[in-house]
Specification:
about 120 residues; alpha+beta; 2 domains; three-stranded antiparallel beta sheet; two-stranded antiparallel sheet; globular
Length: about 120
């Protein structure tokens, strides 16, 4: 049996979005990333966020399933377009179609396509 390795991870900048991401490898070999700040964020805050993620992934505790509504809010902060017409149409689709139907559902981590709406 292989010994579990300590994940140090790296902090990478996305030049297109000007955001910083903490990247690491899961036990399955899949590369994961999590947002830790903007390029304008103070270095100590980015390092603190990365250290919290590093501690969580090395502790071996299972990840909590997230609600669709919380993932939508995170997407709005990190990935949503800055263009007026695009963001307006995206917000309309989210508000009128996605959140009313799936807002309270939780994601099932084993299969990223399935939702648990029970």
């Amino acid at each position: 049996m292989k010994r579990a390795r300590y994940q140090r991870g790296t902090i990478n900048a996305d030049p297109r979005t000007r955001k910083l991401y903490f990247r690491w490898y899961e036990k399955s070999g899949k590369r994961r990333a999590e947002y830790v700040g903007d390029l304008s964020s103070p270095k100590r805050l980015v390092e603190a966020a990365a250290e919290a993620i590093r501690h969580r992934i090395n502790a071996g505790e299972p990840e909590q399933t997230a609600r669709v509504s919380s993932l939508v809010e995170r997407w709005k902060r990190e990935k949503m377009s800055d263009r007026f017409s695009t963001s307006r149409s995206d917000q309309s689709r989210l508000r009128n179609h996605i959140l009313p139907k799936w807002g309270d559902c939780r994601f099932v981590r084993s299969d990223p396509v399935r939702l648990n709406c029970g």
